[in-house]
From TrEMBL:
Cited PANTHER family: SESQUIPEDALIAN, SESQUIPEDALIAN-2
Source organism per UniProt: Xenopus laevis
Lineage: Eukaryota, Metazoa, Chordata, Craniata, Vertebrata
GO biological process: endosome organization; receptor recycling; retrograde transport, endosome to Golgi
Protein name as it appears in the record: PH domain-containing protein
GO cellular component: cytosol; early endosome; recycling endosome; trans-Golgi network
Signal sequence, start to end: none
Domain PH positions: 13-107
């Protein structure tokens, strides 16, 4: 199947992009320098920057990332449901930025963050007449992060300001 990445992701820019070293899937494979683009929870990799078609796509849903000990500096592993990807950044700063971006792209991280925000909202709202029933419920808003972001801006910021003035 040929995927036209430019049309699928038109109008958006990647959360992170740059070169990483990716180890091949064979046991004694060497690292290859590849151009990576992170869009949401999809990680595209290309032979080089500007290539029209990716060599592969890694779906980051339920993935985990960890630093690893290796002869290769700045190494980390990306654990997907089907495979372990051994990668390395070219410097410490890139390592930190990529690991953070990959960790944040995981759906589980987003759900944990949402749960934390909901908890903070309930704490801030405890002094009022109860929680606002306009809150989009988990089963109704699904993946509409734009609506949730808008709602949180309307509800939490005034409560935070109220809490600060009372302190």
């Amino acid at each position: 199947m040929k995927l036209k990445v430019s049309s699928v992701l038109a109008g958006s820019s990647p959360e992170r992009q740059g070169y990483l070293l990716k180890k091949g899937s064979r046991n004694h494979a060497s690292y290859q320098r590849r151009w990576f683009l992170l869009w949401g929870n999809l990680l595209f990799y290309y032979e080089k920057q500007g290539d029209p078609q990716p060599l592969g796509i890694i779906v980051l849903e339920r993935c985990s990332v960890s630093l690893r000990h290796s002869r290769q500096e700045y190494a980390f592993s990306l654990y997907s449901l089907s495979r372990v990807y051994k990668m390395a950044a070219e410097c410490q700063k890139d390592l930190e930025l990529w690991v953070k971006a990959l960790f944040s792209a995981n759906v589980g991280y987003t759900k944990a963050l949402l749960d934390e925000v909901r908890g903070q909202y309930q704490i801030l709202n405890a002094g009022d007449n109860g929680p606002n029933t306009k809150c989009p419920q988990e089963n109704t808003w699904k993946a509409d992060f734009g609506a949730l972001h808008h709602w949180l801006g309307e509800e939490i910021l005034p409560l935070r300001a109220k809490n600060i003035t009372e302190s």
